[in-house]
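hey can u check if this looks right to u? its 96 residues, i copy pasted from the old doc so theres a chance i mangled smth
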Amino acid sequence: RASNRPGLIADLNDMSDKLELCEKALADFLESKKRIFPRFYFVATAMLLDILSNGNRPNIVAQNINALLQGVKSLQLSGDPPSVVESITSNEGEVV
């Protein structure tokens, strides 16, 4: 019955157009960030959204550090909230 509602096709087409507009705006936004920091080109879209949406929380962004910097396994952060890099651990286990 719901599929027989008058105007349903028009509503669905309108929603589809709005969704397409949002997707294009998001793609343009992500592209602008990739131009600023080219390493973002090698990060999956979902991870990039996570990184950008948590930009003011370094402890969350640090969880994705290996995707951004291939030789870096992890960052050790200090502070409350954790925001100061104390050391960097490489994929080989070296600590700097």
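DSSP finds four helices and two strands in the chain.
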